[in-house]
Every structure is written in structure tokens, then in C-alpha cells.
Amino acid sequence: MIAGRSGGTVKRKSRAKPDPVKAWARRIARYRPNLQRDVMDGLASIYGRPAWERRLDPTSELVLTILTQNSADVNAEKAFEALRHAYPSDAEVVAAELGAGWGGAGLPPGAPPDWTAVEFAPIEELIDVIRPGGLAPQKAPRIQACLRRLRDERGDYSLEFLGEMPALEARAWLTGIDGIGRKTASIVLLFCFGLPLMPVDRHVERVAKRIGLIPPKASADDAHEMFLALLEPDEMYEAHVNLIQHGRRICHARNPAHEICPVAARCRVVNPKAP
Q1: What is the CATH number of the domain that holds 70?
Q2: In sequence order, what DSSP letters do the residues of 83-114 get, joined into one string?
Q3: Going by C-beta distance under 8 Å and a sequence separation of 6 or more, which residues neighbour residue 91?
Q4: What is the pLDDT of residue 4?
Q5: How far is CA 227 from CA 10, 131, 148, in A?
């Protein structure tokens, strides 16, 4: 409060809190110029520059991503194949070979499951079908809840409408479903539509924090937003795929191979004062 000319008091306007995401992007630009470009180029020198192409229809991508939560990708693929066999559909067969960014063996070409049959399957039956993917008692009701939300709001099980929405609006729609976080939503929207979002899994988060692209104590949700501020829209897919590749092949959780890392010169683990 401050005194006014008439003897009264007026409220002092409070200063708006700075946006931590924008503040971090400015800090990187000022103190570590060209960091993003050097990291992208370094990773591309080993892993190439992957080109985006759709892998699955978006509903299949969503269900497969749910199956990967806290499970090995190869086990999630087995569970998805089990869904195909247990609840076959007469949909047109599509090529569904999984590309880079996944750690499994890849799915063979095939039609998506019959989503109506999956939604209305007895829960114990569905749990048994997807058991190879791990954590089936948690994932089965989550999958059915997603399918029910789609049918209730849209009248069918298609997520194709999300491709016509701005990226953040589409992400907000998906994260409005219980159990769907920013990572899962971003995977679906990036891989199915090429929307400029950056999924941050454990490999991406680990590598980025070691290099210093994101702060050491940034939450997973904050990391998603920071990448959107640091990268250009057309860099999201390449960055996601190559950071995952790097985390699996060189920047391991234990004993990272610093001696062959193409971005070691800019990594704050290798050198805490790296430029």
C-alpha cells in the first residue's frame, strides 16, 4: 500500500511472476548459445535425421502407449498383438511396422483390434489378454475408460479429429482423459499427425538433464514445456527419436560411454563448465 495525493491509500500493482519456461530458454540462449543446434547436429552425426511417417492409427497408438507405461516396449507389443488376436476386426489391414523411437521388435502389419469388443469385454478377460504387457489390472480399466470417453463424446473410436486441432489444444483434449499425461498425449500427436510436441520419456529426460538442455530439478511436465520453447516445431520428431536412441546406445543410466559421445564437449556431466 502507498499513500495517495488525497491522503488515502492505493494498492501497488504486484509484479507478475516470470514464466520459468521462457526464463530458462532465455538463459540457454544467453549463456550457452547454439546448444540445441550443436546437440541436434552431434546426434545426427551418429543416428541420422529421421523423417516423420505415421506408424499406426491414433487410437492404436494411444492404446499401445498405455501398454508401454512402466513396461518394456517388447512386452507392450506382445500385449497389443494379443488384443488383435482376441478381438479381431474386419478393418482394412494397414502397415504397422514400428519405427525408431521404440525399443521393441516392431509390430507386424495388421488391422487394429475391434475397439467395441475391447471396451465391452469383461474386465477380467481383458486383463488376462493384455497380461504379457505387465500391470494388466491397472491398464485394462484405463484402456476401457479411454474408449468409453471417445464413444461418449465422439460417437465412435476415432481420434483422427485431433489432427485438425492446434497442437496444444489437441494435447489438452487427450490429457483430459484420466490416466493420460503429457508424455502419452505427445507421443500420439507427434507420431500420428506430426504435431510439434516433444514427448519426454526417461531417456530423453536423462540425456537432456545431463547435457543441460533442461534444469536438473525440472519436473517431467516442465520438461515438456521447456522443449517447446527450446526447439523449432520441425525439430521435435528428430530430437525425440535421437535423444531416445542416444539414451539407449551411449548415454546409459549407468556407465555412459562418454568417450564416444558426439556431444561430450557440451555436456555438463562430462564438464560441469561446458559451454
Answers
A1: 1.10.340.30
A2: HHHHS---SPPB-----TT--S--PPSBPPP-
A3: 111, 112
A4: 55
A5: 41, 34, 32
